[in-house]
Specification:
This protein is an alpha/beta fold. The protein has 20 helices and 14 strands. It folds into two domains: about 210 residues, 3-Layer(aba) Sandwich (Rossmann fold); about 200 residues, Rossmann fold. The strands form three sheets. A six-stranded mixed sheet has the order 4-5-13-10-11-12, sandwiched between helices.
């Protein structure tokens, strides 16, 4: 399988180049040169397949022969070491993606990427430096996935004061090959610094840089696995399926759209955001107008210029009518999010995190006007990661899982920097000596 840039389809690179480069030289995002359609027999047998078996078949078709079969199976086994159960909630289903080591959906993508980059690192002498911008969960998932992986170093950039204390502790307390930079700005500023580093010729010549954000194609591939697994758990329901995806940088939704292109029979995807609603606005108006992000209680979705929008357009050949046929957009305020957490807990006893609550709201609103569907929303992080927000909403204490308790005992270690790229550029080489 070859991969092309969203800015230039004529350029084709290998999986290794796409994963290690992270971003294409022309600042585009890599996409598979084609999306294979899986045979009908695969979907008929889904309920009998394990999560790992599903992941292997999907990855094999998207990657091709770029990774030896035995190595790919090892990477899948490393990636899928925890479940993603479908849990009934108020006549719909929550797909719980928070059972991994950092209790967030990004554990799947981060572990797959660490397996791939660990494999590539063994084939060369130069250390790989992973740059990652985070609005919350990406940093913790990537830092923990790469912690002490030979031949790699990780630099996490995060917006000061705009991630929860628990999220911050999960990547600032590790040390070792993990360095945390606390940026005096927004997530969009962090993402801009990372992108600028990848196109800076001086940094590229002196450091072996790659990205672990959802701009990296290796993050998207494993995120498609759990859409197939969710469908398998529905046990071939006679109802058509609609999936609501709480969205920030839109990697998760893009992975779902890739699964649909591979033949997964999802009738509709819901792109649901907080007040950072540039994609729902696009779906309503046909105009994409990125802007500075606004801080909300669902902070991992505070993105004003989502990178993966370019991939969404590519999947539909930039045809608005085709795209809007498969995707419907909603956005919700913090007040609505709090009310959803409160009412769902009161009525069912289920505890939503702020991001899952946004997905739940979008699904419920869609189903009010479109009956007869099996509805699924993504629960992307454990509610304890947002304990202050959740406890205020449900008026109940949320117990910290043991893994989070251990992180909270650690000492925060971070370096404060401005949003100035020159400062970041000067600092970066000194962190890696």
């Amino acid at each position: 399988m070859k991969y092309y840039s969203t800015n230039d389809k004529s350029v084709r690179v290998s999986l290794r180049e796409a994963v290690i480069n992270g971003l294409a030289p022309d600042n585009g995002l890599y996409m598979p040169e084609y999306i294979p359609v899986l045979p009908t027999s695969f979907f008929e047998s889904l309920p009998e397949k394990s999560f790992r078996e599903i992941g292997y078949e999907v990855a094999k078709n998207l990657i091709g022969d770029d990774i030896p079969v035995a190595e790919l199976r090892k990477i899948i086994d490393h990636t899928i070491q925890f479940d993603a159960p479908l849990v009934p909630v108020d006549n719909v289903y929550a797909l719980e993606l928070f059972h991994g080591p950092t209790l967030a959906f990004k554990d799947f993508g981060a572990r797959f990427l660490s397996g791939l980059l660990g494999y590539f690192a063994r084939q060369q002498s130069k250390e790989i430096t992973i740059l990652v911008a985070t609005s919350g969960d990406t940093g913790s998932a990537v830092a923990n996935a790469f912690f002490n992986v030979p031949g790699t170093r990780v630099v996490v950039l995060y917006p000061s004061g705009k991630v929860s204390e628990i999220q911050e502790k999960q990547f600032t307390t590790l040390g070792g090959n993990i360095t945390s930079l606390e940026v005096a700005g927004t997530f969009d500023d962090c993402q801009r610094l990372v992108k600028a580093a990848f196109v800076d010729e001086q940094l590229k010549s002196s450091l072996f840089l790659t990205s672990a954000n959802s701009i990296n194609i290796a993050r998207l591939i494993p995120q498609s696995f759990y859409y197939f697994y969710a469908y398998a758990q529905l046990k071939q329901s006679e109802k058509q399926v609609v999936i609501s995806v709480p969205s920030g940088n839109f990697g998760n939704l893009t992975a779902g759209l890739m699964a649909k292109r591979m033949g997964l029979p999802i009738q509709k995807f819901l792109a649901v955001t907080n007040i950072n609603d540039v994609v729902p606005e696009y779906l309503a108006t046909k105009f994409f107008k990125p802007r500075n992000s606004q801080q909300t209680i669902s902070n991992a979705m505070d993105v004003g210029n989502p990178s993966n929008f370019a991939r969404m357009l590519e999947l539909y050949d930039h045809d608005f009518e085709k795209l809007s046929k498969d995707i419907y957009g909603y956005y919700f305020t913090d007040d609505s999010t709090r009310s959803a957490m409160q009412s769902v807990f009161k009525n069912t006893g289920y505890v939503l995190d702020p991001h899952g609550a946004v997905g739940y709201l979008g699904l419920k609103e869609y189903l009010q006007n479109n009956s007869g569907y099996a509805g699924v929303f993504l629960e992307t992080a454990h509610p304890a990661k947002f304990r202050d927000v959740v406890e205020k909403a449900i008026q109940q204490q949320v117990e910290l899982p043991p893994r989070l308790q251990e992180f909270m005992k650690g000492e925060k270690k971070s370096i404060s920097i401005s949003v100035n790229f020159s400062e970041f550029k000067s600092l970066l080489p000194t962190l890696l000596t």
